[in-house]
Design brief:
This protein is α+β, with helices and mostly antiparallel strands and 204 residues long. It has six helices and ten strands.
């Protein structure tokens, strides 16, 4: 599978000609299959690190790595003692990972990468188009799941969103039996169904 790795521009030529050594680039030790394993954290999508994607100080490398030497984990759990077990249990082989399941997926590479398995990406034309980035995919996955189980989901979210704006003083509100009618400072009017937050919500 191909994963992605950002490297400072000054190190680009060395990586392309000599490879990426696990001994020098490992940035995590993770319990994998019962062993503390040195890993290089890489990305499933170049846009999963937008700051580096937009920066001209980093080159984005496409890395071809065999599945036996990489694992997917949810990095949103990493670095917190309370969620350490969640992080360890999130580690799976690529074959078992479902895209959109983790908010911040990372690919843990457990081997040195040879030059033949590295290519430099053109950030404009080589970025995968299947999805924008992993966080967007994760949020979309949850929203679609909730919409399928709760037919009034959109109305509920819309109502709560406008009520938040009203509580911040950004909108005025008139209430009738069924609707809340909001007006902004430009005179735009929004009619929103009152959220029925007391009804039974379907979950899983």
């Amino acid at each position: 599978m191909e994963v992605y790795y950002y490297i400072p521009i000054k190190e680009r030529e060395d990586a392309l000609s000599c490879g990426i050594k696990l001994s020098t680039k490992a940035d995590k030790k993770v319990l994998i299959n019962g062993y503390d394993t040195s890993c290089i954290s890489m990305l499933l999508n170049p846009k999963d690190h937008l700051d580096k994607y937009k920066s001209d100080k980093y080159a984005c490398l496409g890395i071809e790595v065999k599945s036996g030497y990489c694992f997917i984990a949810d990095s949103s759990f990493f670095g917190n003692n309370e969620t350490e077990n969640l992080y360890v249990h999130s580690v799976v082989s690529p074959e078992k990972y479902m895209f959109g399941k983790y908010r911040k997926p990372e690919c843990l590479v457990t081997c040195t990468i040879l030059p033949d398995n590295i290519r430099e990406l053109n950030k404009v034309i080589d970025v995968p188009l299947l999805y924008n980035n992993s966080e967007d995919l994760y949020v979309s996955y949850i929203l679609e799941d909730l919409k399928e189980k709760n037919l009034d989901f959109n109305e509920t979210v819309l109502g709560l969103f406008f009520e938040k704006l009203y509580s911040q003083g950004k909108l005025s509100r008139i209430e009738n039996v069924e609707f809340w009618i909001y007006t902004d400072t430009r005179g735009s009017v929004f009619t929103v169904k009152k959220p029925e937050i007391t009804h039974q919500i379907q979950w899983r």
